[in-house]
Design brief:
By secondary structure, the protein is α/β, with parallel strands linked by helices. It is built from 13 helices and nine strands.
């Protein structure tokens, strides 16, 4: 069934996610802080633009957002022109931003008081996953709200799972980022070791990727890592933002994150090399620069 929906935030991920909603036949109204980006989206898809998040959300059954951080989420929801001011009773706000569980629970409470649903639903899969509609979506919130929403999210997801009450989606995304941080550092060290040993990296990866060492990062990033190419993908700045959220949550729940803390410091080294916007696989660059020596 076609629905009236809104999408707030047309960055690397949101632009394509909103496109899948339009392609599925939904009536989509988009808002982006840089209006030219929203106008470009409308030229490429069937839909409308709105001057504020509130205007985009008015009359929409589902309102999606994918913005930068906690402050951005608050701004587009409860800010002076936020979506919550014009959302209809019974509608659902779906936040795809990677943010804290704290802000997810806060906004869930506000939304509930206003009479509409709220789901924290961070995503994983990178730009390629957004383009191909193959994202993994980790959801926190009420079961009834999720049941009404999951089929719409399914237009750009390969898996969409309710993990628990409000905040559970963000906590699961933290698990995802903690795992990736250690994995990418291990991959960087392994490939650099192969390089220093004079091995043919393509041949090495062909063999070890078929065993226990295989991973998405190895399959999709080893060649660009070998070629020292990092001007794409999930930026180091964003990974450090996400790891800061993980470490703040760990202080609350008592978890120990020694590897995540270490790798966060390594990403700071990459930033110092000028790689703030490089892909997270650029950890190998600091090894080549001899930062550890």
């Amino acid at each position: 069934m076609a629905e009236k929906v809104a999408f707030i935030g047309l960055g690397v991920m949101g632009y394509h996610m909103a496109g899948h909603l339009a392609a599925a036949g939904h009536q989509v109204t988009v808002y982006n802080r840089t209006a030219a980006r929203a106008e470009q989206w409308v030229r490429e898809h069937v839909g409308f633009t709105a001057p504020t998040p509130a205007d985009a959300a008015e009359g929409a059954q589902f309102v999606f957002a994918c913005v930068g951080n906690d402050d951005d989420v608050r701004d587009v929801t409860i800010g002076s022109n936020g979506a919550f001011h014009k959302m209809s009773e019974g509608a659902v706000f779906i936040d795809h931003t990677t943010a804290s569980a704290v802000v997810a629970r806060e906004l869930y409470g506000v939304a509930t008081a206003y009479g509409f649903g709220f789901l924290d639903a961070p995503i994983s899969g990178g730009e390629a996953g957004a383009v191909n509609g193959q994202l993994s979506v980790m959801v926190g919130g009420d079961n009834d709200t999720f049941s009404r929403t999951s089929s719409v999210i399914g237009h750009y997801a390969k898996i969409c799972r309710l993990l628990g009450p409000s905040g559970a989606g963000q906590l699961t995304k933290m698990v995802n980022q903690i795992c990736i941080a250690g994995l990418v550092q291990g991959l960087s060290e392994g490939l650099f070791f192969a390089e220093c040993s004079g091995l043919d990296i393509s041949s090495v990866v062909e063999v070890i990727s078929q065993g226990a060492a295989g991973s998405w990062q190895m399959e999709n990033r080893y060649r660009t890592m070998e070629n020292n190419e990092f001007e794409f993908g999930f930026a180091v700045n964003w990974m450090r933002k996400d790891l800061a959220i993980c470490m703040e949550e760990a202080e609350r729940n008592g978890a120990q994150l020694p590897v995540a803390e270490l790798v966060d410091g390594f990403y700071a080294d990459v930033q110092a090399l000028g790689g703030s916007r490089w892909d997270t696989s650029s950890l190998i660059a600091r090894l080549r620069q001899g930062v550890d020596k």
